[in-house]
Design brief:
11 helices, mainly alpha
């Protein structure tokens, strides 16, 4: 189904993330929000949720966009979901991740769906990365939290989101985290 609003959000995401690359595999960053949007669309998410998935990192990562600009371009509903998920990059990794985790119980339904898709894609990318490289120091080097803090953070986030999202996403989150832990010789 064609949606002009989703197409505009995709165009902004492509432009805003053009200089950015993914950690671990160096893919163009825009692959991440596109994957999230596709997943949410497959699960029947509405247009606002799909747009928010495409734009979820634009305000924090792109110099040309902020939340008021997203509200003007895409409406308050989209900007509100993006605002729920926007991190303050001036904060340390630990503070940003703790704040995001503490915020999960307060996310809107749309915010919880987008955050779940965000974490699922990040976990899927990490699982593929570790399955190809193994549980080595080099495999964990690109990640700010290192192995132990990253695994601890992912365990906590998957538990929190599993209580807030639909069962399909919750199962996918747990299964994908299980893949990562299996490579590391750990269990859920």
């Amino acid at each position: 189904m064609y949606s002009h609003a989703v197409e505009r959000a995709l165009a902004v995401a492509i432009e805003a993330h053009a200089p950015h690359r993914r950690k671990g595999n160096n893919d163009p960053y825009v692959v991440h929000p596109v994957h999230m949007a596709l997943l949410l669309a497959q699960l029947g998410a509405d247009e606002v949720t799909v747009q928010a998935a495409l734009l979820h990192d634009v305000a924090e990562d792109a110099d040309d966009w902020d939340l008021p600009g997203l509200a003007r371009a895409f409406g308050d509903d989209v900007a509100s979901v993006v605002a729920e998920l926007t991190e303050d990059k001036r904060q340390s990794w630990e503070v940003r991740k703790r704040t995001a985790l503490e915020h999960v119980p307060h996310l809107s339904e749309r915010g919880a769906a987008v955050k779940s898709a965000d974490v699922l894609h990040n976990l899927s990318s990490l699982a593929a990365h570790l399955e190809s490289m193994g549980d080595t120091n080099a495999a964990w080097q690109p990640f700010s939290g290192g192995k132990e803090r990253t695994l601890t953070q992912h365990r906590a986030m998957v538990a929190a989101l599993s209580a807030r999202t639909n069962e399909r996403l919750a199962d996918a989150l747990r299964t994908t985290l299980g893949r990562i832990l299996a490579v590391c010789g750990e269990t859920l």
